[in-house]
Amino acid sequence: MQMLHIASQLTYLAVAANFGSIFTVLICCAAMILFIRQFRLYEFEPTGTSVVQVKQPAQQQLLNKVNLPFSLEVGKLDSSDLSGNYHLTLYSTSYFPCLFVVCREMSLDLVKNLINEPWQNFLEFFRSEMKICPNLQIYAEEEIHELKPFSIKGALDCIPRTTYALVAFHIRTDAESMNDGDPTALITLIHIPDRYCNAPATTLCQYLKCNDGRVLNLKPLYSPEKSRITPNGDDSRQRHDNQGNINCVICWNFPATHVLLPCRHACLCVNCFKRVENCPVCRTRVMSYFLV
Q1: Which residues contact 72 (CB under 8 A, 6 or more apart)?
Q2: CA–CA separation, 134 vs 149, rounded Å?
Q3: How far apart are CA 283 and CA 265, in angstroms?
Q4: How many helices (H) and strands (E) does the chain have?
Q5: Buried b or exposed e, range 213-226, using 16+ CB within 10 angstroms
Q6: Which of 16, 125, 174, 255 could, after both became Cys, cross-link 245 (CB 3.0–4.6 A)?
Q7: What is the pTM of this model?
Q8: What secondary structure does DSSP assign to 148-215, as a single string?
Q9: In angstroms, rounded to a whole number, what is the distance separating the alpha carbons of residues 184 and 216?
Q10: How confident is the model at residue 153 (pLDDT cuts 50, 70, 90)?
């Protein structure tokens, strides 16, 4: 009997020890959770600051309408090899009588000076330098044309460029019919590929000069491709696409009317624009916008 009593006592102690171990583990886990919580709340809490972050809504930019009288498109480039000559086709459009001039290998400083020159000094440069500068060549004068092709020929540089390969000028010649603030000249900088930069022939940038001294840097807008409509497509979407509009990249139901800045993505309709803070295409913060 004494042995059985001792055995029962030992069994009771073993069971109590197991429960005690489990209880101890639970107490340790609870203490650890409380410690970590307090540690995260107080140790890593940012210190007080006087800077208050306020979300500012994107501001609408009011744009002034400018009638662009000129345009230039870069066409096909033919080149046998990178060390030979090139043959480039430019498509020019002019809705006023103009002087279309192309200069090969124009220095950066000269281009910068011409862009910032007053209108009269700008004209004087072409009157005086046209005959003595061998790289300037007249391709059209006193002519209104639309998508007229011009063939430009030249030699490719074999050294890293320190000049612009091609600089095209559209210069209005009907000074008597121009009003104050009218666009008077379009300056287009064109890249030609060589052995150091194989990027295709393309327009680098364009500057629009006005007779009141303003110089506008023309920048392209980025928009998604037009959506294709299936035979069972919605009538409203069909109407938008037939009008030449680009649909919103979020809802795909309404035309994109908001151009986001500074990324210049034309991708949102008026309803979806109210629900976003970043551009849905490139994730850039929307600082301002304008309507198209």
Answers
A1: 90, 91, 92, 93, 168, 170, 186, 188, 203, 206
A2: 22
A3: 11
A4: 5, 11
A5: eeeeeeeeeebeee
A6: 255
A7: 0.68
A8: EEEEEEEEPPSS--SEEEEEEEEEE--GGGPPTT-EEEEEEEEE---SS--PPSEEEEEEEEETTS-E
A9: 11
A10: confident
Mean pLDDT to the nearest integer, 184-213: 87
Nearest to 269 by CA among 283, 244, 249: 249
- Give 103-106 contacts, CB < 8 A, sequence gap 24+: 103/133, 103/135, 103/136, 103/137, 103/166, 103/167, 103/168, 103/169, 104/135, 104/137, 104/154, 104/165, 104/166, 105/135, 105/157, 105/163, 105/164, 105/165, 106/135, 106/163, 106/164, 106/167
Task: Count the alpha carbons within 13 Å of 83 in the hemisphere toward its beta carbon.
Answer: 0
DSSP E strands: which ranges in the chain?
59-60, 70-79, 85-107, 136-155, 163-172, 183-191, 202-210, 215-218, 258-261, 265-268, 288-291
pLDDT band for position 73 (50/70/90)? very high
Contact partners, residue 290, CB within 8 Å, separation at least 6: 60, 61, 62, 63, 258, 259, 261
CA triple 94-100-105, angle to 5 deg: 135
Which residue is listed with tokens 């390969």?
165
Strands 183-191 and 163-172: antiparallel
Q: How far apart are CA 207 and CA 215, in angstroms?
A: 7
Percent of the chain with pLDDT over 70: 74
Q: What is the DSSP letter of 264?
A: T
For the record, the structure tokens of 154 come out as: 């030249």
> In angstroms, how far is the first alpha carbon of the chain from the final one?
101
Helix, strand or coil for residue 47?
A: coil
Q: Is the distance from CB of 102 to CB of 167 less than 8 angstroms?
A: yes
| Measured distance CA(195)–CA(41) in Å, rounded | 60
